Amino acid sequence: MTANTEAQELKDRLSLIETMIAEGRRSTERFGWTFVLWGVAYYVAILWAGLGHDYKAWPITMTAASVLTGFIIAQKRSKRPATTTVRAIGTIWTAMGISLFILLMSMGFSGRADQHTAIALSAAMLAFANAASGIILKWKLQIACALVWWALTVYACFGGGTPLTIAFLMAIFFCQIVFGAYGMIAEARQRRKDAAHA
Amino acid sequence: MTASNEAQELKDRLSLIETMIAEGRRTTESWGWTFVFWGVAYYVAIGWTAYNQWPFAWLVTMMGAWLLCGAIIWSKQKKRAERRPGTTIGRAISSIWFALGVSMVLIFPALGFSGHFNFHIFVAIVAAMLGLVNGASGMLLRWKAQIATAFVWWAATVAACFGSDNQCNFVFVVAIFFCQIVFGVYGMIAEARERRKEATNA
Fold first, then answer.
1. Which of A114, A132, A157 sits opposite B99 (nearest CB)?
2. Residue A95 CB: number of other CB atoms within 10 A?
3. Contact A135/B125, CB-based, under 8 Å?
4. Distance, in angstroms, between A68 CA and closest chain B CA?
5. pLDDT 10s digit of each residue in chain B, 202 long?
6. Which residue of B103, B107, B139 is in closest CB contact with A95?
7. Would you call A102 and B106 a contact, using CB atoms and an 8 Å cutoff?
8. A31 lies in which domain range?
9. Contact residues on chain B for A139, CB-CB shorter than 8 A
10. For the residues of A160-185, what is the DSSP string, one character each?
11. Mean pLDDT of A4-8
């Protein structure tokens, strides 16, 4: 292969990666509703567990949210093959969901979970998924969400009681509800733009 | 765009994805030594803790392993003359492992220094996190062997929570053996075979 052809191949490859990143970011915006749905699900579980002192609050709410997410995604699934970036993001969130579910259920039912470890673990896993996605998509806003979750991971180990609950509620608000709503608004704006160009 | 053009574009895209998956799998194989390295590091920490019950055995071993692993990666990259840009899958996999590294570096010392640490929780978290990264990488690379390691780690997560101290220890040692040592050696052998094949074809 000549140096010229190789340089051209590298250029094509980089341009394709850029296109994939843009498409991946748009795809994440399309999934903005899942951030909002899970943020609301966390609030429901926290409220139910806090008011009702019911140990079933978290398993029931999380299972219901998983089923509802799976159902809506199945309904919305596009017939076009996904790009590599979109597949990468999908696998990260799927694997994170499975791991967090198995870990929290096992720790909960074996009596090894307390407020500190449960919040620290959830925050560390959410930070992981947001950081990996943010780095892949070169998306500063999502990396900022990861930093918030990582800060909560550390705080959850040392803080406690009401301040910890407030910190958890705030992290959910900013990194799930606000970030999800931002994605939904960006997607709606893009759709309007596409419709105007069509 | 005509239907024929669109079909051709989809075909090209799928073919490119297949190439990227193959390349990503080969990159993971070339990192097989890190699986073995970390498997051995875990064994050293387990053995050290069992030998004299020193509370900082894990912290010291893991920090030492981080430094050594970083130094080896740095010296390997320095030696490499040619630098090709990574594929999307390669970037995705490195971001997955990087994010895992940061999460682990933050959560374990924080749990340890705040007094919320016990061996069952430690094994459950390590297993869940390694299940997570191997699951994500395996699904991305469509690599059944790596997905199988994720299942072993997830099973270890459940066993660590419900088993006794001895059972938890046993499960951890067995999971490390299969998912780090065996899988890492398998990657190293596959990479060596591929290199020999390339040398023969060159």
1. A132
2. 28
3. no
4. 22
5. 567 777 777 777 677 777 777 777 887 778 889 999 999 999 999 999 888 888 788 889 999 999 999 999 888 877 765 555 567 788 888 899 999 999 998 998 898 888 887 889 999 999 999 999 999 999 988 899 999 999 999 999 999 999 999 999 999 999 999 999 999 999 899 888 888 888 887 7
6. B139
7. no
8. 3-75+83-197
9. none
10. -HHHHHHHHHHHHIIIIIIHHHHHHH
11. 76
Q: Which of A8, A80, A106 to mutate to test the interface with B (most CBs of B within 10 A)?
A: A106
Going by C-alpha positions, the residue among A133, A28, A146, A56 that lies closest to residue B106 is A146
Supply the pTM of this predicted model. Answer: 0.85
Which residue in A has a C-alpha nearest to residue B17's C-alpha? A84
What residues contact A98, with CB distance under 8 A and at least 6 apart?
B131, B132, B135, B154
Residue B122 distance to chain A (closest CA, Å): 11
- Kindly list the distances between the CA atom of residue A130 and the CA atoms of A79, A143, A189, B61, B142, in Å, as whole numbers in the listed order: 26, 6, 23, 29, 22
Pick from A13, A99, A131: which is nearest to B128 by CB? A99
- Which pLDDT tens digit goes with each residue over A107-141? 988 888 888 999 999 999 999 999 999 999 889 99
With tokens 């979750």, the residue in question is A149
What DSSP state is assigned to residue B115?
T
> A33-80 pLDDT, tens per residue?
999 999 999 999 999 988 877 778 888 999 999 999 999 988 877 666
What is the tally of structural domains in chain A? Answer: 1
Tell if the CB–CB gap between A128 and B87 is shorter than 8 Å: no
> What's the pLDDT tens digit per position in A164-174?
999 999 999 99
Q: Do B121 and A107 touch (CB under 8 A)?
A: yes
Of the candidates A84, A94, A110, the beta carbon closest to that of B17 is on A84
**8 A C-beta contact, residue B134 and residue B147:** yes
CB contact under 8 A, A158 and B99: no
Phi and psi at residue B117, to the nearest 5°: -105, 135
Nearest to A165 by CA among A72, A43, A82: A43
Nearest-by-Cβ selection for B98 from A16, A98, A135: A135
ipTM: 0.83
Q: Measured between alpha carbons, how far is B191 from B69 in angstroms, rounded to an integer?
A: 19
